[in-house]
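User: I'm putting together a teaching handout on how multi-component assemblies are represented. Below are the sequence lines for each component of a complex, exactly as they appear in our records. Could you produce the 3D structure of the whole assembly as structure tokens, so the students can see both representations side by side? Please keep the chain order the same as the input.
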Amino acid sequence: MTHTHPDDLKSLEQQLRAHEAPDAAAWARARRKLAERAGSSGLVDVAFERHESPLGTLLLGATAKGLVRIGLPAEGEDAVLEELAARVSPRVLCSPRESVTRARRQLDEYFAGRRRSFDVPLDWQLTRGFRREVLRATARIPYGRTASYREVATRAGSPAAFRAAGSALASNPLPIVVPCHRVLPTGGGLGGYRGGAGAKARLLGLEGAA
Amino acid sequence: MARPRVSPKMPPRSAPGLPPFERVVERHGPALLRFCAAQVGPGRADDCFQEAMLAALRAYADVRDPGAVRSWLFSIASRKAIDLHRERARAPQQSEDLEALAAAHEPVHRDEALWARVRELPEKQGQAVALRYLADLSHKEIGEIMGTTDAAARRNVFEGLTRLRSELDLTPAARRPSRKHDPHTSR
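Assistant: Of course. Below is the structure of the complete assembly, with chains in the same order as your input.
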């Protein structure tokens, strides 16, 4: 074997280490193709997409059963994706899914004032027990109307549990579609909202209920 | 009261702290695609990348150590690359057709000639060199991926480099002009 000076190897190492970065356009193509292939392979437990809305960028996540999570801009994308990874499955990927496509179209119509209720399959797995009952009762409040915490607690079967109703609404995994923005404190004011009071006021304003 | 039922399709509870797969793709995907291009040639880089990522996604919920995701991902890509490389060796006529590459919009990196040389090294040496310099893995991680000791991994890298060096010396025309280096990143 030829004798190799260590310095020669150093410069070769440097050349190898200074490899050219992946081509940006090729990466974008590979990423898109992966989203499509993974989406149709059934390997994605939570498919999500980002959706522009008047409230800002929403994150829409769906399992095979239906829409499982709507993340509001105030929540932060990282927190929402990490919650999905921990509570549903780490196989979370930005990829297409029919229920998400449907939800996106309906949200656009809703924000344009052309839709009053949503018709999308929902996966309720991120909420259970009394909290789920509260959210189901909330889902029945009509467009443009409001209810108090005590009213939704009553409809969920426990009139005295209005505090628990409040925390159920604060952890609503499917805001907008399950319209927790329509629940207001009896004493006046807007009450809390996962997406911030501004977002709540905006939704109520859109519906003409504020 | 009925207990909440767990859908049988859902994977078993995975290790705490496993990041959403989306973040794995964002963090390591570009380097993985580059690694595939270097290991199997630009024409098959995308096949190698897609197969590796889908295999990783399939097995992701079973990963036990979130800190070892990167080397785990490259070990999968490494196996796919060897499969494709051997396939190519059996059917060399359909390998480096540059017109087909252009038609497929596959980029040919400027340092492709150097990595094409790495592909010509004995399999273990070429694999060790790519894992070291493209995947940026330690000798320990390379050893784990290749099923050898740290020392053997170090030897594979060193022998690959030495051989590459002497082959480049024999054919100076194939040498690439040395590129500028950031003094902070080169060792």
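A couple of points students might notice: Chain B has eight helices and no strands. Chain B touches chain A through 59 residues (CB under 8 Å).
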